Amino acid sequence: xxxxxxxxxxxxxxxxxxxxxxxxxxxxxxxxxxxxxxxxxxxxxxxxxxxxxxxxxxxxxxxxxxxxxxxxxxxxxxxxxxxxxxxxxxxxxxxxxxxxxxxxxxxxxxxxxxxxxxxxxxxxxxxxxxxxxxxxxxxxxxxxxxx
Length: 147
Hints:
Strand order of the largest sheet: 2-1-3-4-5
Helix content: 25-40%
Oligomer: single chain
CATH class: Alpha Beta
Structural class: alpha/beta
Distance between the termini: 14 Å
């Protein structure tokens, strides 16, 4: 099984950015933790982080041609308004799980809504970096129609 782990804007600044909300784990440490978890499951994980919406959309499109089996996506701030990322996820029809380190439903009003969720098979929020492992678990252990 091949998974694509996508992280949106400012996720490269984990450990620096608001550690009281996002924790002290760096982006590199997050990727290492996910890699170890995937290795234990026999899953191939590829990581992609971008601060640009268009780059994220292009990578989602490419995942269709790469025979990606599932996507874990933390769209970060794009969660709240990027219908273009929503459309890209719907276009490729690859099962996706939306993940957020913080609980977006308990944050500022503008952060409480996700336009991405309806394009995903599940959303995990407020579980810290463990949310990524829960997301991977869902994709590995559930059966979804792919492509």
